[in-house]
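For the sake of transparency, this paper describes our internal protein records without simplification. The tokens are whole numbers drawn from a learned vocabulary of local backbone shapes. One such record is reproduced below, unchanged from the form in which we store it.

. . .
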Amino acid sequence: MEKNHRTIRSRYQKALVFLFFGLFITVTARAQLLAPTITVSPSSTNVSNGDTVTFTIVAHCNVGVLTSLSCVLTNTLTKGTVPTNVLFQTLSGVLNIDSTITNTLTIKNISSACAGTYTVKSSDLLGILGLSSSVPITLNILPTVLAVPGQAGMVANGFKLQFSGPIGSNVVIEASSDLIHWAPISTNVLTGGALSYIDTAAKANPSRFYRAQLH
């Protein structure tokens, strides 16, 4: 008889464990369905120095628990802060049931300090439900080639140009006489981050303009 009682008690305890585990899984799954969601457009982009870019951030909430959005930038320069030229329109108030709010992340006069991964995060009211969502936004700055004015000028056999840029980059130098029509005059690799070129045709042209770009 005692053995039967122990068997029944053991089965009862196991049933309680399975019931608790099942309830935990169900609550967790439903909680995830209630968690706020974030979509960003574009999710990543490549820009040049001095550009302005705007990301559209859409937050959606199934229930009225989302109160605000936060944004941090992760890179070696800012160490988790947001540069002063980054304007993040924060969401205020509480999202009602099945509602959506659109915000923007605008970055002006982009520099290397702005490059990296921005993480936009939404959280529920006071963290009571422990629900949150986060979305990464990647901003890459395209490498550029720069003229070195102090090393440019007429020499014996033409006009000397010098450019600097990322090591190993392929640089195309173009020339124009009217700033409208451009023609490539040289393609070279930036060895050691610098490139010198002498345009021998400059001596036969009364006016000559130059530009260079990476290819």
Q: What stands out?
A: Helices lie at 2-34. The chain has three domains: 1-34, 35-141, 146-214.
